[in-house]
Amino acid sequence: MKKIIAFMVKGIIKSKYVLWLSLVLIVFILLLYGINTTQSGATKKELQATFEKRLENIDFLIGRALNKKRNIGLSEEAERGLDSLLIQEEYLKTIESKLNDEDLDISSENLDYIKEYRVYESTISIPYQNIDVLHIEQRKAEILKKYNLSYTEQETPYNTALFTKKLLQLLFSPITAFLFLLIFIYKYKSDEQNRIFDFLKVKSLSNPAIYYGYLIPFLLIVVGYIILASFLSLLPPLVTGNLNTIHYPIEVVVGADTLMVPVWKWLLYIPIGWGIFVSLLLVSAICLFKQRFSMGMLLTIIALPLIIAYIISVQFGFYIVNPIHLIVSYEMHLLPTHRYTPYLTGMFVLLIIFLIASYPVFKSKGLYLKVPVLHSIRKQYAPKNRWKLIQFEHLKKKRKGHVLFSLILLVGIIGGTYIFVNQQYQNLPKTYLLVIEEQQNFYVEQQMHWKVLEEEFDMEIEMMRADHEKSGEETEFVSAENPYTIMIENMDLSYRLLDDLKNEIGEKNFPEKFRETMNTIRKEPSYKELDRNLWDVTVMASEEQQRILTEKEITPWPIGPLWISHFQDPSTALNDVHYTILKANQERNTKYGNSGLFSVYKYLNWNMMLFGMGVFILLLWTSLSDERQPNSSINFMKTKTISFRSIYVSKWAYNLMIAYGLLVLCGGIVFLLSSLIGGIGESQYPILVYATGSYEDGFTLELSPDVTSNESADDGVFYSYGDNVNFYFESLLVLIMKSGMLIMAQIFFLNSLFSLVGRWVKNQYVTIIITLLLVFTGYFLASQYTSASYMFLNPFTYFDTWNVVDGWKSLVANSAAVNFINGSIILFVSGILLFIIGLLAGRRKA
């Protein structure tokens, strides 16, 4: 076995791909490093905004206290509160000065400020901070001071251990894990076809020696990759002398608690967990290959347990025996505590058990699992009487592995979208907590202003009473009741309701409690009670959608009650302040679910189908130019009297069939799996759809400009005076079906375009490049010049799938002609025209 290992390792070391991998890692890290250095300091801006707001509040309170001192004087406790405010002001000015000088070493000053604030709060004064937020901030500042660290950029780091953490999360992700598995499978199949195993058996080597000798070098590759990637990722903090930032605390939300976890736990856990996970995959793969399973069946057998493990982790939470936590769902359950040590130890023991259990599999001779359904036997090509050319195309692609590889990529794209959506859904407790704390901060700030007014009212009463006493008037002074007291009490009640709600985060019915509590404390008036000019789409659609949901008894998507329209997208912000407001509003009302229909909705909304189309063009689709290459297929085809026209039609039909077939298959599989986790979903969920036109434009819908309430809009169409647009609601299932039809039309058009380019170009790779360039150029022009009068005839206008279906594209183009029906017709007609042009372009024989 030692000789086999030495032979394999020597071949790997001499391979040029090892050098290429190192170069790719270096270039990737340098590129990401350069991008991060050019990004704005998000953390610095956030700190500046926080402390500027605190300084503003303190200045306001100091001015109020001094005014009271001049008029009626201050009590002893109020005097101490004023002195404390003056001290806090000095600390905050020092912090602000440091931040303006790009110095983020403010931990000591911040701790002094928090300590002084607690002294201030003990006096009879006006609190202006959320004490829970300050407690979290204090713990973080104490850790930073302990390790002599300054605040650093967390979103775009580049010279600290946070940058290393960011790199490790990319380099040791589930994607790279499955890439290693694919590389191992490719190498194994290649060596098997080259009779390497037969050569080793000729040398009288035992099966265990051969297979262990083959497996161990790949496990060494995994270890080598971990060492190389970890070392390169650690270089930035090492070179800049910031290695001590491995102790930098990161907030991790566990239920209603925010815990501080040092960066080094990620740096330790991620590489080890990833390495064990990949090793388990490789051991499983070689054992299955020993049983002579095909590549497709092997991937299926490996993928199913992983999918089941992921479903279990989502449905039932964390289990320490579940290996899926090696790569996902580990931050909340393992890193805040020290459970990661026994967990990794247990997973390493599991790997050892796998290696030991593989011995009888490797030792067996001629003993295979011969299940007819699972066992794959390559059959000799025997075409049926009909569709021979299509069968021939499929056979070539299948034997090259293109069909399977495309299937894997498609499942990865669609499934990866779902996993991302589901992970966001799993992170909802953190989002809930942030929303609750933001609302509590709002109430604290509002209470401060109302308490100031309350004290000023009391001060005026005292002054009036003093004036009466000086004048000697006999009229009895009746003290008025303070009108601001009840407002303060209501806000305090709302704050305590949110505090109780925070403690219930993580319960199964929490979304319902969250929505009920938010509706209770907000109590916003109906838009119909407001001025017409305030009837924007967001306000109207949010209320009308909630009414529809209530009438149809549909559970709303978490988290916020608002439906943020495209008119209030952060990209439309007028300035930085406006952007901050729109961004916060969008994040507080982001919709996430874990049902099958919701996953499809997000997949379409993100326009991920463009990547799916790129997969077909790059890997799967074939054209006439492919047959001009010096391969065996051209020699075979020359022996037949087959016209270019027949080949052209067969390739066009094959591309279309395989694209439609794989998309439906992959989408169906992922939808079924996602339905196991979150159910099918509400097919009748109302989704906002924009309608082009307005009353002034003479829009075809029968809406009267004198309407003061949308209750008279019996056809379900509403008009927004604020945004000057009509809109209505359509069910999620209908919009998904429309999107599916539009995608079918897009594929039909692209297929004809690819076939036509391949008809005129002699090289397959040039065909791919030209097709992609045409698609990118057409899509860019359609996006830049959407409002041109003729742009509705451009097929590429309709590649923005969801925006076409929900009507937003027609608003951008300012034309009702840009819609789902016209888009489908134009794409299909354009595809037919391109197909006919290619079909009639020549009559030569092959």
UniProtKB/TrEMBL annotation:
<protein>
    <recommendedName>
        <fullName>ABC-2 family transporter protein</fullName>
    </recommendedName>
</protein>
<keyword id="KW-1133">Transmembrane helix</keyword>
<feature type="transmembrane region" description="Helical">
    <location>
        <begin position="340"/>
        <end position="362"/>
    </location>
</feature>
<feature type="transmembrane region" description="Helical">
    <location>
        <begin position="403"/>
        <end position="421"/>
    </location>
</feature>
<feature type="transmembrane region" description="Helical">
    <location>
        <begin position="209"/>
        <end position="235"/>
    </location>
</feature>
<keyword id="KW-0472">Membrane</keyword>
<feature type="transmembrane region" description="Helical">
    <location>
        <begin position="820"/>
        <end position="841"/>
    </location>
</feature>
<feature type="transmembrane region" description="Helical">
    <location>
        <begin position="765"/>
        <end position="782"/>
    </location>
</feature>
<feature type="transmembrane region" description="Helical">
    <location>
        <begin position="732"/>
        <end position="753"/>
    </location>
</feature>
<feature type="transmembrane region" description="Helical">
    <location>
        <begin position="296"/>
        <end position="320"/>
    </location>
</feature>
<feature type="transmembrane region" description="Helical">
    <location>
        <begin position="266"/>
        <end position="289"/>
    </location>
</feature>
<keyword id="KW-0812">Transmembrane</keyword>
<feature type="transmembrane region" description="Helical">
    <location>
        <begin position="603"/>
        <end position="624"/>
    </location>
</feature>
<feature type="transmembrane region" description="Helical">
    <location>
        <begin position="167"/>
        <end position="188"/>
    </location>
</feature>
<feature type="transmembrane region" description="Helical">
    <location>
        <begin position="652"/>
        <end position="677"/>
    </location>
</feature>
